Amino acid sequence: MSxxxxxxPDPSFSGLLMNxxxxxxFVAGLSPSDDLDAFRQESMSPGDRSVIKEMRESGSxxxxxxxxxLLDDDSFVEVDAFVRHRSGxxxxxxxxxxxxxxxxxxxxxxxxxxxCFSQDFSVFSGTMGEMHAKKICKxxxxxxxxxxxxxxxxxxxxxxxxxxxxxxxxxxxLLDNLVSCSGKVPMISIILGxxxxxxxxxxxxxxxxxxxxxRGRMFMRSPYVIPExxxxxxxxxxxxxxxxxxxxxxxxxxxxxxxxxxxDMAAEILSHMPDHTMSEPPNLVSGDKWDRRCKGMGKxxxxxxxxxxxxxxxxxxxxxxxxxLELSPSYAExxxxxxARLDGHAVGVIGNQPSVLAGCLxxxxxxxxxxxIRTCDCFNIPIxxxxxVPGFLxxxxxxxxxxIRHGAKLLYAYAEATVPKLTVVTRKAYGGAYLxxxxxxxxxxxxxxxxxxxxxVMGAEGAVKIIHRAELADSDDSAERYAELVDEYRExxxxxxxxxxHGWLDDVIEPSQTRMCLVRALRPLLSKRxxxxxxxxxxxxx
Length: 542
Fold this sequence. Notes:
single chain, 542 residues, alpha/beta, eight-stranded mixed beta sheet, seven-stranded mixed beta sheet
């Protein structure tokens, strides 16, 4: 933890202010309103001046400036501006700044009321002491009662060690309150500094985490006590920087090059979310015609099922104004997730990515998609799935890593979701991966395939090798016979019409009609309601 926590250049300012109020009022005849003005002035900029100077030189804004920049003009309503810490240990009584290192309150974001808070790194390095945590708790509780989203701007080094165990309880209360809000109101965390310990845990409980590329870093433990950093084996950016959390750990769903960009990302995510779980997402109708044909769609997907293509190109053709907000684009790239709009309605989009690992599902992709499905289900956002999956990724790494358990999470999430579920099979849909990707048997409401779709237990090549293994071993001309058997199997099972005859597909459509068919299916499903038998909760294979 930074030593500047005790080295403020004006540590006795608060004490001098109190003396002035006590003696100066009597001598100079000051009114109570003068006292308020003095307190208000102190609360506007309570931090260490040297730290604020360093922040400005590096391009960072102060906590208050960040809140003002995030919210609509003149909409911020601050709470607990006069809170002080109550610790007398380690010289803390010499510096009791107003606000205790966090700016909190509520305001408007694009015309919608949100609760928000911003940690102040210039006050005790943004660490979470007793009153700091209680301030955030109050805002979180307010958001839960008011049923409004929460946006947290994190820039702090975790628990305040100088307050000892007194800070531990309120930090636990904060985590408990955030868990209570989970699934009730949207929660977005923006990381604009070094965040560790409890702050990192709290931010990780959010529905969405946005990391600032320049200074955003997250650690489970303070970087000052991590052996690899102390020894110089790695630096802070390598261990906890934005790029690594976006591509390796999957903690960050988006990375921004600037603070303003991070706020815009938060606003765009929120535009697809409702205020709370009992409301509906905003409907923003565009000029894009609902029955627009997706021209050139058939050319995007090669006829050869072994050739890769970019699923994002297909997704872009289908949705309003060809706009797609992709989340976690650098993590588990073999599956694509994000938000889009269909006929003005916000939808969650999931698609296999044939250009990465041939679109196979692995551990990270399964968890990534399952988490997103559950987020959409919490907030009444329909799910549209594009399927081109040859199966789960084979290998000892996946098997020993628990692909069975993690793959079950994806299946569980789809089966549990009660929002409208629409599925388009573009090409391959094999075996257990087909089942896990929102198949009809898991309660999907509308399932269609293109003529290139292949719904089967496995690919024709693999199936022939298993079914006709003995015959091929005894055949003198096994290569020719193998080719005949593959063609025969593909003709019998390798087209979408077999599945359509069994009712596993609602229709086989031309690729150019994808948008129109999805809109027609979504409109009546917007009023979908499912009766769920009361229970405490299911036991997802975590």
